[in-house]
Amino acid sequence: MHEVTVKSATTTRQRGASMPVHRTISAMAKPYVLEFGMGVDVHGADATTAARRAVSDAIRHSSLPFFADVRARGGRMLVDVTVGVPDPKAVDVEAVKRELPHGEVTVRAVAGGLRVPVGDTLIACVAITVSIEG
After folding, report:
1. How many beta carbons lie within 10 A of that of residue 17, not counting itself?
2. Measured between alpha carbons, how far is 42 from 117 in angstroms, rounded to an integer?
3. Any idea what the Cα angle at residue 19 is, between residues 22 and 31, rounded to 5°?
């Protein structure tokens, strides 16, 4: 169960913890899909490569045929991506957006993920929320 506070741009979960929301959520938008993924750049420590792989991992096993009906009746599919990497400024968010084939995509990089202490391996974690408006 989610409550959305549009003015303060936070989402309150049932247990009372608040999480920042990076898109102003319309009162009409309802989240339908949550996907999670992990991506690794094993030898380049490239945040964008790891982020793109994390998005691919998150959506690889999804087939959501009801979105065609939403688009047919004029609805909007809003795709919000949060990617955690050690250096958020190193992520090319436009390249990450291109990994998602449908919807109005918003990507936000935040501090997280993991830089493996030995070698040049970087791990990105991603959370994708797909909401429908209309």
Report:
1. 9
2. 12
3. 65
* Residue found under tokens 């999670």: 36
Q: Which helix (H) or strand (E) holds 97?
A: helix 93-97
- CATH 3.30.1330.20, applies to 26-133: yes
Positive or negative CA dihedral for 65, 71, 75, 77?
positive
Q: CA–CA separation, 109 vs 43, rounded Å?
A: 21
- pLDDT tens-digit profile of 45-76? 999 999 999 999 999 988 888 888 888 899 99
Check: pTM over 0.85? Answer yes or no: no
In three-state secondary structure terms, 117 is coil
Which helix (H) or strand (E) segment is 57 a member of?
Answer: helix 47-59
Tell me the β-bridge partners of 50: none
What are the domain boundaries of the chain? 26-133
